[in-house]
Design a protein that fits this description.
- The structure holds two protein chains of two kinds.
- Chain A has ten helices and seven strands.
- Chain A is of the alpha+beta class.
- Chain A folds into two domains: about 160 residues, no CATH class; about 180 residues, Heat Shock Protein 90 (2-Layer Sandwich), CATH 3.30.565.
- A five-stranded mixed β-sheet of chain A has the order 2-4-5-7-6. In chain A, strands 1-3 form a two-stranded antiparallel ribbon.
- In chain A, helix 5 runs antiparallel to helix 10.
- Chain B is an alpha/beta fold.
- Chain B has two domains: about 130 residues, Rossmann fold (3-Layer(aba) Sandwich), CATH 3.40.50; about 100 residues, LytTr DNA-binding domain (OB fold (Dihydrolipoamide Acetyltransferase, E2P)), CATH 2.40.50.1020.
- Chain B is built from eight helices and 15 strands.
- In chain B, the strands form four sheets. A five-stranded parallel β-sheet of chain B has the order 2-1-3-4-5, sandwiched between helices. Chain B has a five-stranded antiparallel β-sheet with strand order 10-9-8-12-11. A three-stranded antiparallel β-sheet of chain B has the order 13-14-15, with no helix packed on it.
- The radius of gyration of chain B is 21 Å and the shape is elongated.
- The N and C termini of chain B lie far apart (about 65 Å).
- The chains are: A alpha+beta, B alpha/beta.
- At the A-B interface, helix 6 and helix 8 of A face helix 1 and strand 7 of B.
- Chain B: InterPro entries: CheY-like_superfamily, LytR-like, LytTR_DNA-bd_dom, Sig_transdc_resp-reg_receiver.
- Chain B: This is LytTR family transcriptional regulator DNA-binding domain-containing protein.
- Chain B: Keywords: Coiled coil, DNA-binding, Phosphoprotein.
- Chain B: GO terms for molecular function: DNA binding.
Amino acid sequence: MIHPILRKSRYLYYYISIWALVSVAHFFIIYYFYDIEPIKVVVESLTFNVLFGALGLSFWYAVKFSNVDSQPFASIVVTHLVAAVIAVGLWIYVGHYILNKVFSTDSDYIFFLNMTRPWRFVSGILYYSLTILFYYLTINYDSLQEKIQHETELKSLVQTAELNTLKSQLNPHFIFNSLNSISALTLIKPEKAQEMVIKLSDFLRYSLGQDGKQKTSLKEELKNIELYLDIERIRFGDRLNFEKEVSKDCENKFLPNLILQPIFENAIKHGVHESIEGVTINMNCICENNNLKIKVKNNFDPDAVVKKGEGIGLRNIEQRLLLSYQRTDLLRVKKSKNFFEVQLTVPQEED
Amino acid sequence: MKINTIIIDDESLARDLIKSFLQKHDEITLLGEYSNGFEGLKAINETKPDLVILDVQMPKITGFEMLELLDHHPIIIFSTAYNQFAIKAFELNAVDYLLKPYSAERFGEAISKAVERFKAKEQSEDTINNLIEHVDEQEEQLERVVVKIRSKIHVISVDNLNYLESQDDYVMLYTDDGKYLKQKTMRYFENHLDPKQFVRIHRSYIVKVSEISRLELFEKESYIVILHDGTKLKVSRTGYPKLKKVLDF
């Protein structure tokens, strides 16, 4: 712990100013109640208060080594009582010594000085108490600040961890099925196989390389989605169609990375996987009122009996949006007889 | 020796790969390839192949659900990217379980096993049926039930079941849309339906708790439940405490 007053020169000026005020008060009280020449009162006030101000700086060490949390209360009281008696005793002794020297010929003043000694002792104890009280308050304030800072750091750490777990996890079956398609292509259409290996690699590079950051541009996300759909189209052929309408000005807008992939994965899982007929995924992006609005719609076989365990991907997206934007109204899902639609609103930061 | 074979997989490339692997195996005659469980089921029952190379995850019904509905039991090689079904597949007496992607050699091993099994095919189909029952003991909770009525296949979500009634070797499933006969035991359903939702109230009945409208005293110490649609079902002496526990009264 650094000395709370000496840690910044500004704080030392404040401290000196306070003692200057005390000195002024001291002057007026003595001058008003006792019949002593002003010049003598000035010397006295300065002597005692400068001395105590200097001495007060050292009280910090008594405070620092008698920690309220780690030591019994009684021992702290004893420490401070001893420290106070020594400090105040020293203060009065030195003060008297100086003033005795300066005003050695003025017997009236010396008499006054000796008469008021008990009161100086009382005021010294009071000054001591106020000073250590101030030190204890600074310690408390400091540790409170530290705690708050620690807590915020912890909170943001937890939030990042949460966001990372919510980020879409690559579905291993997608990878193995794609590898199986590649295995088939190497025998049947080798030139197509190479194309698919490259697409799968690009897709994996993007999906696995997004650890550090949370946001990306729509353009990047779209590139990744197209790769994903290209790969799935090699597997499913005509069963998967994709249409998109993206207005040009949206491309540079930002959104949480990898947030679209689970939406398309869902569309494929519940649309394409469960239907014998073709499924069309339609994507529409517009920007309005400083929001990026993305709609993804797919048809599905109304006769397919939906298996449970669905909606985890969408719930994760909802959680991510909540953590990133503190809003719960950003994801909307509409399900009709044979259409499934996901609407995503991504607020953009003000320019 | 000719082993009549069909392929059932919803991805055409996956089928193409199997076909190309099969070219090296003269003992295999390919009868056809199908892209979903419905078509596959129809083909198996019509052409009665000796061997089926089967994917698990397919539109409409899964490979496993399809197997439940077969009248004729061919040798099965599973070909899937999902490793979690392997134990179930072997318990269903599948001859091999290929994890996509697999090599031509690995595929060859599976075919060799199938050939061996084909040669020893004297083993009665009863053992296979027994195995199917055996698997049922450790299966996970049911989400849907597939039923074949004549040539039509119905996929019934468990959410639509109201109650089940035992009918000798079969179980009648009652839903809002009608009733379906399924060749399974009451014990099978008792073990595989969510115990928080379904209660075996009687030797002959399993009822969905949310369908119960009220419980009435029928005779001395004998109760009946009355469902929302008015159906009355007897509650046995052992069924009553189970119902009491689930309904928490």
